[in-house]
Amino acid sequence: MSSNRKSVAALVRRPDNIGLALLYVFTVVALLGFATFGLNPGLLAQMPESAEFYAISFLFFAQTQIWLAFAVLALFLVMFARWKWLTAFVAVYLISLGSELAGTTVGLPFGEYAYTAALGAKWFGHVPYLIPLSWFFMALPSYALARAAFPNKVVNRVLMGSLILLAWDLALDPAMSKATAYWVWAEPGTYYGMPWLNLFGWYVTGLALMGALTLLKADEWVARLPVGWLAAFYGANLLLPVGMSVAAGMWGAVAATVIVLAATTAFGIARSRESARFTDRVVAA
Fold first, then answer.
1. Domain count along the chain
2. Is the pTM of this model over 0.85?
3. What is the pLDDT of residues 191-204, one digit of tens each?
4. Residues 51-72: pLDDT tens digits?
5. Residue 62: inside a domain, yes or no?
6. Residues paired with 197 in a beta bridge
7. Cα–Cα distance between 23 and 36 in angstroms, integer?
């Protein structure tokens, strides 16, 4: 019993777990602020002093959440993989930046859209510096989760990893461009204001990111990462858009996210069990 208590205490004190808990707390506070004031502008009208505070918070929480999530993941990666992840980070940052620049200039592969000033300074006046950071800190856990399901099947892993990444956007885009205005679409689409082309663009960009991680042999250090922690980290970042979608009554976005994640999880578990049974048969033979 004593050894179990020590193990639990060690887990609680681990810096990456403290950072992850802080990320969850920060996200819940942001959601409470959005649900209280963001969806009830009448309250701000009744309290002029709160209106200015909320205007600052609207920028602060969005930008800080991205920085905080990246910092927590970076700490985790340094603890378990030292600095081996930096090459993958640079590659993912540049690929996602290129994809976003194409989207915000020529309308491909996502459709025509533009970022507002809410996410801070931008590359070439189009893409906030923070956006490729968010691609990285969600692409990596998506890849790791897909790898856990398909440790020996690279193509399946790439396809599934991109789908896990896409599931995030099913709630993210409605929350950030419909419920709020961190980016705006040139022509409103049928899925909570965004065009269906955006989902295609996300999946294709996801394929490029998963492919890059594979070609860069990220498996050599991803194999050292606790998958459970990465799943919890993915959940922390999913919580914000899903929570905003719930607060805004966009239940279709919530349902779409849950369905895609449930399907990929069920498929991944089934494939993992099948692989384990195959290994057992080989060993027994």
1. 1
2. yes
3. 999 999 999 999 99
4. 676 777 788 999 999 999 999 9
5. no
6. none
7. 20
Q: Is residue 35 part of a domain?
A: no
How far, in whole angstroms, is CA 240 from its chain's centroid?
10
Taken in order 26, 136, 72, 70, the sign of the CA dihedral is negative
Phi, psi of 262 (to 5 degrees): -65, -40
SS3 sequence of the chain? CHHHHHHHHHHHHCHHHHHHHHHHHHHHHHHHHHHHHHCCHHHHHHCHHHHHHHHHHHHHHHHHHHHHHHHHHHHHHHHHHCCCCHHHHHHHHHHHHHHHHHHHHCCCCCCCEEECHHHCCEECCCEECHHHHHHHHHHHHHHHHHHHHCCCCHHHHHHHHHHHHHHHHHHHHHHHHHHCCCEEECCCECECEECCHHHHHHHHHHHHHHHHHHHCCCHHHHCCCCHHHHHHHHHHHHHHHHHHHHHCCCHHHHHHHHHHHHHHHHHHHHHHHHHHHHHHHHHHC
Burial 166-188 (b: 16+ CB within 10 A, else e): bbbbbbbbbbbbbbbebbebeee
The C-alpha angle with vertex 242 and arms to 237 and 243, in degrees rounded to 5, equals 95
Residues constituting the chain: 285
- Asked whether residue 38 is domain-assigned, the answer is no
- Percent of the chain topping pLDDT 90: 78
Domain extent, residue 182, equals 80-284
Query: Is 55 among the domain residues?
Result: no
Write out pLDDT tens, residues 143-184: 999 999 999 899 999 999 999 999 999 999 999 999 999 999
